[in-house]
Each structure stands twice: as structure tokens, then as C-alpha cells.
Design brief:
Layout lengths: L30 H25 L18 H4 L3 E3 L5 E3 L2 H32 L3 H12 L6 H12 L4 H8 L11 H24 L5 H8 L4 H29 L3 H5 L8 H9 L5 H29 L8
Helix pairs in contact: 1-12, 3-7, 3-9, 7-9, 9-12, 11-12
């Protein structure tokens, strides 16, 4: 540590390189201050997941709901195999079929939302800045209303005396059976999760200087070429984020298949609810939940590997 001398008195002044022994970046708190908040966050986020995972390895009581704290793999075995009264175990594809139907439902919802959201997000990103704010506000307005209220509104639209059938009646056309069908369930999912696809794609395109696209037009590029080679690569992080934000909740959705689909198609969300409710088989319901978590974790790992390999930062946020 060096010191500085006064030329007139020769007295040592304050050390030049003296620095505080404990430095902390502005805005950072010591660990004891944030420990209670971290504990509460872990309790209410990781806590329920830990309970579900533990319950999935427990035994089912002879009567009623709940679990018996005896380790077993029977809930996971029952997902693929069935044991009859004689003790014979055979492959049972019923639950696997439900799992496949749920994957198909989530895939259809994701693809349709992507096809609708990309042109909407691109159009919003090319508007003046003040108009962009208004359009984004209109996209987010549905989030201000409870999901059940919006779903019941679709029930009023699609029922026999709803807006659609009333319009068909005006033109002398026969009524259509729209409510309590798989199509109604799919329509409700697309409506619910479309904003989750629009907003991430818009966020990726909002900062782009579209004069570069105009320059490509001036150089003779076609519109399809500009979209494929300039705009689409720029929107890729938003597309990936939107795909995850739509597919994950659509895969395990419960409200729309029950209220709009009438429960006619058994999906993984309905199956889990029935295991915790009607069947009172908590370990099997927990095992189904863990299987969904594993599928979603695989999807997240794939996205992380893609982000690392491509060098594009993908954020799963709106």
C-alpha cells in the first residue's frame, strides 16, 4: 500500500490505493436478508413438486384417497401395464392413447397459433411506435378477464342458440352442433393461448430496422426470400419461446376440454383430475403428473441445447 507525502511538511497523507475491505455492488443484499424470501419462494414453488414426486412412489390405501408411505413403482407400471384378478400382467395402451391424444392436441394448438401469430406479430412490429403500444394492449386485454369467464363466453357463442347458429339461421342454413365437441375444445385452446405466441414473436421483431428489408426489396429479393432469410431468423428466438409457452399448458389443459368439449375426449389433464377426484387414486395421478413434468423437462433441455448450439438466446417469457 503506497502513501503520498506532503511536499511542504513531509507528513503522510491518506493512502492513495486504500480501498474498503468489504465491497458490495450497488443494489445487492447480503445473504441473511434474502434468505427468508428464498425460503418462501422454494416452499411454494419446489414444495408442491416435491410432494407430487414423493406421492408418485407411494402405495394406494385399500379404501379412500390419500397414500400409504410404502415405496412402490406400481403407479408407473400401471401407466403401461394392467394386472387382472388372476395376477396376469398385460400391456395396456389405454393411458398411452390418452397421452398421445394430449400430445396431438398440444401440437395442433401450437401449429395453428404459430401460423396465426407470426403474421400478426410481423404486422404489429411494422406499425408506428404509438400504434404498436395500442395493438399490444389489445392483445393483452384478454388476460384481464378470468379464464373461466372467457370460456363460458365461448359456450354462449357456440351453443345451439348462440351467435354462430343464429347467423346460420338468418341465411336459412341448418344449425351445427358446435358445443361439446372436440372442435370446440380445440378452438378454445387456440383462442386462449394465441397471445402467448404473438407476444414473444413481436418482442423479437420489435427492435428490427425494417429499412433493411426494404433494401433487400430494392436489390431484387422477393418477399418470400426476405421473410425466409431476414425476418424468420430474427424471429426464431421468439418463435421457440412461443412454442414452449403454448405447447406446455395446452398439453395438460383441463378447462377447455371439460367445458367446451364436454369431456367427450379423455385427455391427460382430465385423467389426472379424475384420479385425484373420482378414482381417489392419488399415487397414479401423481405419477401421471410426473410423466408430464418429464416430457416438459425434455423439451426445455432440447431448447437449451438449441440455444447453445445456435448462439441465439431463447427466453421463455412474455
Amino acid at each position: 500500500m503506497s502513501t503520498q507525502l506532503d511536499d511542504r511538511t513531509g507528513v503522510n497523507l491518506v493512502p492513495v490505493s486504500a480501498a474498503p475491505r468489504h465491497t458490495r455492488a450497488p443494489g445487492r443484499f447480503p445473504w441473511p436478508w434474502v434468505a427468508p424470501a428464498l425460503l418462501v419462494a422454494a416452499l411454494f414453488t419446489l414444495g408442491p413438486l416435491v410432494v407430487i414426486v414423493v406421492f408418485s412412489f407411494m402405495s394406494r390405501p385399500p379404501q379412500g384417497g390419500g397414500v400409504i408411505y410404502e415405496f412402490t413403482l406400481e403407479p408407473y407400471v400401471n401407466f403401461l401395464f394392467q394386472t387382472d384378478f388372476l395376477g396376469n400382467t398385460t400391456f395396456d395402451p389405454r393411458y398411452l392413447s390418452v397421452f398421445g391424444d394430449s400430445l396431438l392436441q398440444g401440437a395442433i394448438t401450437t401449429i395453428v397459433c404459430l401460423l396465426l401469430a407470426f403474421p400478426i406479430a410481423l404486422w404489429i412490429a411494422t406499425r408506428p411506435e404509438k400504434l404498436q403500444n395500442v395493438l399490444v394492449l389489445l392483445i393483452t386485454i384478454p388476460f384481464w378477464t378470468n379464464l373461466l369467464v372467457r370460456t363460458y363466453a365461448w359456450m354462449l357463442i357456440l351453443n345451439d342458440n348462440g351467435i354462430v347458429n343464429s347467423g346460420l339461421n338468418l341465411f336459412g342454413l341448418p344449425k351445427l352442433e358446435l358445443l361439446y365437441t372436440p372442435m370446440a375444445s380445440q378452438l378454445g385452446l387456440i383462442y386462449t393461448f394465441l397471445p402467448f405466441m404473438v407476444l414473444p414473436i413481436y418482442a423479437s421483431l420489435a427492435g428490427f430496422d425494417f429499412r433493411l428489408a426494404e433494401a433487400a426489396y430494392d436489390l431484387g429479393a422477393r418477399k418470400s426470400t426476405v421473410v425466409r432469410r431476414i425476418i424468420l431468423p430474427l424471429a426464431t428466438p421468439g418463435i421457440v419461446s412461443g412454442v414452449l409457452l403454448v405447447f406446455m399448458p395446452a398439453f395438460g389443459s383441463y378447462v377447455q376440454p371439460v367445458l367446451l368439449g364436454g369431456g367427450k375426449v379423455l385427455l391427460i389433464g382430465n385423467l389426472i383430475a379424475s384420479q385425484f377426484g373420482d378414482s381417489r387414486n392419488w399415487p397414479f395421478g401423481a405419477a401421471l403428473s410426473v410423466i408430464i413434468l418429464i416430457v416438459l423437462m425434455i423439451a426445455l433441455i432440447a431448447i437449451a441445447l438449441y440455444s447453445r448450439k445456435s448462439g441465439k438466446k431463447v427466453e421463455i417469457s412474455l
